[in-house]
Amino acid sequence: MRIEIVGARSIPDSREKPTIETTLRSGELEAKASVPSGKSTGAHEAKELRDEDGSVSTALSNVTGEIAEAISTREFASTKELDAFLIELDGTPDKSRLGANAILSVSISATRLFALQAGVPLWRYLADTYGTTPSAPRLFVNVMNGGAHAGFRLPIQEHIFMVGEATLTESFATAERGFAELGEMLKSETDDLQMGDEGGYSPAFADFDKPFELLTKLVEKHQNTAIAIDSAANELRNDHGGYTLIGKDYTSEELRKLYVDLVGKFPFHAVEDPFAETDSKSFTELTADIGKQVLVIGDDITVTNPKRIENAIEEKSMNAVLIKPNQIGSVSEAAEAVKKTHSAGWATVCSHRSGETDDTFIADFAYGMGAHGIKAGGLGQKVRREKYERLCSIEKEVTI
Ligand code: PGA
Ligand code: ZN
């Protein structure tokens, strides 16, 4: 297929920060994609190209200039071929020259073009191209936002209501009910209720256990649900090699004990980034402690990078990996990261970013890859709900 770049423009993400939207054409077919942006990022992520003023002007001109010119004279048979070409064109290990945001916007929109050309839904094209078995992911709904996404009003970044009903439509309905019920509970607990970056509630509790007591009430009310957290512990690091939560310092050992107690006390399903990206030893120890009961998920430590995932598998640092296409910068490498994770017998959770757009690629990706779960935020923002709604439509496409 011949691919022509129609244009690239700057659009605001859910935090009103500029991001890229790219439109491609092949013959009569047209497709576009926009890319998200993280706030609690890992040091080893592929580089999002931003100018000093925070704009994405250079990334945009890379798409409409160098990338457009380079791909215009060739034919590509699949996203795999295109991605390999773009990676080579960029020539850096972290996509810092052309920008991971520039490259990913082309990679995703081209994937849509290939799916259109094949006449199949996007999730089906992804599964066929990368040899995965599609399945319905569990919904990891971030109902209470803390950490860097909510001014550290709670120390833990994400308090997740995990729902795994028999169908996605039922899971979304349960998530909706749980989200509304939690809103009522929180209103009776506090007058100071805000909303966080990811469309979840943001209360400010000094009592560490309080959010988990409330979530437990939800879980007791609804079958096939459980609690998950993302500590995003890079953000909890203090100057003396430990961690600080609600003004109290913890060594890695003490923090590990806190997680073991937490998982013993409340109905947990998963713990993400319990330690910082440099503290892999603690990851391994915690996985030995609780890995039989719950998922220990790596995010900032693995950054969707197949090599870093391989390393984590060797070190037994976790038993599940978060997959964010923009951490690595191309669809094909994100798919490779999923396959590597699954080949170790580990689970994947595909994830949006805290700065999102209305692009629902991650829903098709999670379904097509056969991921264990999808993390797409709370239900208080349209850009988050759209991902869950797309999953409900995918379910209808499957039964047609
Ligand atoms: P981010 O947070 O998108 O701000 O990096 C999401 C996460 O840590 O999972
Ligand atoms: Zn995370």
What does this 3D model show about the protein?
The chain is of the alpha/beta class. The protein folds into two domains: 4-120, 2-Layer Sandwich (Enolase-like, domain 1); 130-399, Enolase-like C-terminal domain (TIM Barrel, Alpha-Beta Barrel). It has 13 helices and 15 strands. It has helices at 57-72, 79-90, 100-118, 122-130, 168-189, 210-221, 252-265, 280-290, 306-315, 325-328, 331-343, 361-369, 382-399; strands spanning 4-12, 18-26, 29-34, 138-145, 158-163, 194-195, 201-202, 225-230, 243-245, 248-250, 268-272, 295-298, 320-323, 347-351, 373-375. The strands form four sheets. The chain has an eight-stranded mixed β-barrel, surrounded by six helices. A three-stranded antiparallel β-sheet has the order 1-2-3. Helix 8 (280-290) links the parallel strand 11 and strand 12 (295-298). The radius of gyration is 20 Å and the shape is globular. The two termini are 28 Å apart. The mean pLDDT is 98. Zinc ion (ZN) binds at residues 230, 232, 272-273, 299, 322.
